[in-house]
Amino acid sequence: MLKFGFVADGVFKLLVAGAICVFLPAVESFLLAPRWLSITAVVLLFLSAATEISYGLRKGERSYVRYLALFDSLWVLSTIVAVVLALADNPAAAFVWFGYLGLGSLGVAVVFTTGANGPDFAGDEADDRAQ
Question: 0.85 exceeded by the pTM?
Fold first, then answer.
C-alpha cells in the first residue's frame, strides 16, 4: 500500500507539471515570472515526479515518506507566500514559487536516486553475465 502512495504522489506531480505547461502564460503573467525560470522549474518537477514513481515501484520504503511530506509542506508555504507577493505586484513571487518548485524537485530527485535508493547496476551486470 505504501508503494501506491509514492506512485500516486508522483502522478499528481506529473499532472501539476502538465497543468502548469498548459496554463504557463497565465501563471507567468500572474507571478511576473521569466520564461527560463518557469520552464526550468516545470522540467525539474517532471523529472522529480518520474523518479518518485520509479522509486515507488522499486522500493517505497516508509522512512522516505518524510521527504515527500517536507517537500509538499514547503510547497504549500511557498505557494501562499508567492500568491501574497503576486497580489502586491512583486516580481519576487516568481522566484519564491518557481525557485522552490525547481530546487525542491531537484532535492527530491537526488534523494530518490542516490545512495541505497539508486539503481543497482551491479545486479544488472550479474544478470547479464548469467545469461
Answer: no
